[in-house]
Amino acid sequence: MTTRTRGSRRLRTLLPVLLTLALTGAGTGCTSSDDRPRVVVTTNILGDVTQEIVGDEADVTVLMKPNADPHSFGLSAVQAAELERADLVVFNGLGLEENVLRHVEAAREAGVATFEAGKAADPLTFQAHDDGGPEEDAGQPDPHFWTDPDRVRKAARLIADQVVQHVDGVDEKAVRDNADRYDDQLADLTAWMDKSFDRIPEQRRALVTNHHVFGYLAERFGFRVIGAVIPSGTTLASPSSSDLRSLTQAMSEAGVQTVFADSSQPKRLAEVLRTELGGGVRVIELYSESLTEKGKGAGTYLQMMRANTTAMTDGLTGA
Question: Which residue has the higher pLDDT, 2 or 195?
């Protein structure tokens, strides 16, 4: 028998073994990835809340980047595909993620469990213009429920229920313990906000913002919404010159000299009010619709709400 023949026979003997090892290794790699439960969340505010509840029990993917505008951010093809591979999709809804909701609907039609947090959190409707609300959106649901931490507490408990029900492989006790711990933190946040806002005299609890985003906070903590630079519940609208005149008149009548502008949006329109009302108007930044990167002021929902409360209290007391 030649050396070449012996080598060929050895190779034929080893091939099945090598093939088996290769397939076993590939299968192990796929299993650790494919079997890991997935939760996909549209907005970064809800993403933070969901991560607090899920903990290490599943992978949480957040589609909206830090400092993005929830009304206008879109998805890549890869992100859209993530939705249809999820065990659970958590989204704000009520029209907030205007460019993303069709992808959420496609995931639902493909059989993915979805949870609309805004709809489950006792949504308010936008009020008529004479009550400080956006005339064009009057009667429509207000999607900005997270400005009321009590509603976030309700949404968080419901998210925990959804995770336990729809995400296979999670430890229910771990999820419930995470939810209970976070609920305590949210309760502490509400109590701290109440105490902070007590510093603001009732006659000075008046809000003017870039657009109508603080209706829930106003209801919960006893503020009046005088108006918004963009007279709408979405940043995709634009104000007319008559809108700005009406707002400046309302601010003058109410004695309001502070405008709160979202840090993720251009402040040009808010700055216009400086010119209209004179140099005494202050424009103060809030983190109203998006978290920042970690360590940049509002990396979590709890940090965002505490930063906003401090800014609003200081801005309305002249501190």
Answer: 195
Dist. CA 230–CA 235, nearest whole Å:
7
Task: Please tell me the number of Cα atoms within 13 Å of 130 on its side-chain side.
Answer: 0
Q: For the chain, give the DSSP string.
A: --HHHHHHHHHHHHHHHHHHHHHHHHHHHHHHHHTS-EEEESSHHHHHHHHHHHTTSSEEEE-SPTT--TTT----HHHHHHHHT-SEEEE--TT-STTTHHHHHHHHHTT-EEEEHHHHS---BPPPGGGTS-GGGTTSBP--GGGSHHHHHHHHHHHHHHHHHHSTT--HHHHHHHHHHHHHHHHHHHHHHHHHHTTS-GGG-EEEEEES--HHHHHHHT-EEEEEEE-SSSTT----HHHHHHHHHHHHHHT--EEEEETTS--HHHHHHHHHH-TT-EEEEE--S---STTSS-SSHHHHHHHHHHHHHHHHHT-
Cβ proximity of 276 and 259 under 8 Å: no
In the prediction, which pLDDT does 135 show?
57
Tokens of 176: 């419930």
Q: What angle do CA 152, 155, 157 make, to 5 degrees?
A: 110
Per-residue confidence (pLDDT) for residue 259, from 0 to 100: 84
Instruction: Say which amino acid occupies 166.
Output: H
Higher pLDDT, 127 or 139: 139
Report whether pLDDT(238) > 70: no
CA distances from 137 to 82, 100, 152, 238 (A): 32, 20, 23, 13
Q: What is the pLDDT of residues 220-233, one digit of tens each?
A: 999 998 887 765 44
What is the pairing mode between strands 282-286 and 258-262? Answer: parallel
Instruction: Tell me the pLDDT of the chain averaged across its residues.
Output: 83
Amino acid at 4: R
pLDDT digits (tens, 9 = 90+) for 138-188: 788 999 999 999 999 999 999 999 999 999 999 999 999 999 999 999 999
Does pLDDT of 285 surpass 70?
A: yes
